[in-house]
Amino acid sequence: MPYMVQKTNRKEFKMKKFKGFIKKEFYHIFRDKRSLFILFGMPIAQILLFGYAVTNEINNVNIAIFDKANDAQSEKIIQNISASNYFNIEQIIYNEADIEKSFKKGKVKAVLVFEPKLAKKLTKDNKANIQVITDATEPNTATTIINYVSVILQKIQMNLNKDIKMPYQIKAQTRMLYNPELKSVFMFVPGVMTIILMLVSAMMTSISITREKEIGTMEILLVSPLKPFQVILGKVFPYIFLSIFNALVIVVIGYFVFRMPLEGSYFLLGLESVLFIVSALSLGVLISTISNTQQTAMMISLMGLLLPVILLSGFIFPIESMPRPLQIFSNIIPATWYIIILKGIMLKGVGIAYLWKETLVLIGMTIFFIALSIRNYKIRLE
Amino acid sequence: MSIKTTNISKLFGKTEALKNISFNVKENELFGIIGPDGAGKTTLFRILTTLLFADKGTASVANFDVVKEYIDIRNHVGYMPGKFSLYQDLTIEENLEFFATIFGTTVKENYDLIKDIYVQIEPFKKRRAGALSGGMKQKLALCCALIHKPKVLFLDEPTTGVDAVSRQEFWQMLKKLQKKGITILVSTPYMDEAELCDRIALIDKGEILNIDTPQNIINKFDKQIYNVSAKKTYKLLTDLKDYQHNYSVFPFGEFIHYIDKRKDFNKSDLYNYLEKKGNENIIITKTKASVEDAFMDLMKT
Hints:
The complex is a heterodimer. By secondary structure, chain A is of the alpha/beta class. Helices cover 68% and strands 6% of the residues of chain A.
């Protein structure tokens, strides 16, 4: 009798069952093009997308010049601006009406208007005006353009004033720590890593568990000697590996392609990532206990997990500038804490001594989710 | 007793899916639950396989209580749900191996039990389950349910959606399995399959109408049935239903089964009536009752 054998060799059989289950899971994953894409295509696509396309920096922005002065001074300023990498002079405008036209065509993001007799006014009145008109349909880009132009103009002004001694002068000496060039990639790499781990761990597991419910195999698994926790563990285990692999890929791309620094301990980074993965997996299991179809599982994962991670975790919008209720809400998102930890380790190079609080919160959340999903897991169909 | 149920009732909201179901299945018996769709067959199976709780009543399978000793039951029964529930993206071989592993056994160990069935699908063992025909899927599902040599086998509508030849083969396999000492509880909406069971329970709207051997059920049916056919079957059916002396009329294969109310029924009366109504090629012959006739009669009362 098979069950007699099972009693004598219990441990060995348990291991075999577990291995058999995991083997089956890997078949599912590697035979489904959709999950393969989410697992391996998505991380790379996202990180490259965020790294290259979605960025707050400006580079070679097309602008137009309307030079009513046409003198030595205006020429000098235009030269300075076109010499910088930030702007590319796309168009020269000769009358007022063309300003609006070129904006409407969408060719340029900004127009610089030099007032007539600029050089003369500067020497006579010690004052001259340059108007900066920007296309504010993209507010972030518009503000950044204004800032960049102001900096260039300030430099020119300082050059003009270098022989004159100002009576009083207060200068702000700024220094940007940890990300001196204000590279947005440094924000996006931890963010994308968090999103991908959440997506792979929570969404993929919740979908793969509900798929068994949908096709009816869960019924058979329930009427088998497998205990519920063995089923769950078997379903979750492959995704731990895949998630770790994904985290590795993102860190490597971040490091080599975007020169993302990695100041802190690799070991701590790994441990914290595993902790976050486990918390996301337990969320995935929790979602699968409350949904009966793959579609619901996916919707809950996307709306309930992914959206808050993107919008409220501080990944894109700073938590400090959110309304108070959302600030409080952001505290219950595990991703918020993981992003703090990631930035701490990668950019500041701090150790557990500075991150123990965030780590504890994450551990607490993980335990809570695991307990809740065990409690919610049904050993029957109702 | 292999399966014992006493006064099982189950409510889904306000609808009574099962009402006071009581029956026993003996050791090594091939027992059929016969009834139309929605009769409560699947619910009954799910209660017996520990997947659902009954609201009232008790049940035991292989002498284990379905509520308290559900883990023991899950170790000792084979279950084939109504819907094909194997992994479509795994091959025949991989499916079988997977189920052998989770039941703590190997395909080799119990190969003799599934051999007769497995050899029929073995040529396709590298094919994914999703690409199999209905008959092959069903054979694979049976192999997977048998691989751990269960004491009791639950088959919920195993032949639904399977062609006639495969259905016949399937029942031959069940008979063979029975000889190997396995108790089988099978449900089906097909009345012709009922006659292949040792005993059957006729079930409709959550109630058991009768439990007996198929032969006894047929023997107890004392009304004379006539096979009636004509050129246009649908017209014939409506005309028969309009006939004032009809007791029951229902289509049965290529014929229509007709029972008359009168004791002194004369075939020529009916023939004349049908001819007057404009039916052509009318044939009326006496025929023996089947389980289906008995069932239709039970459902009337």
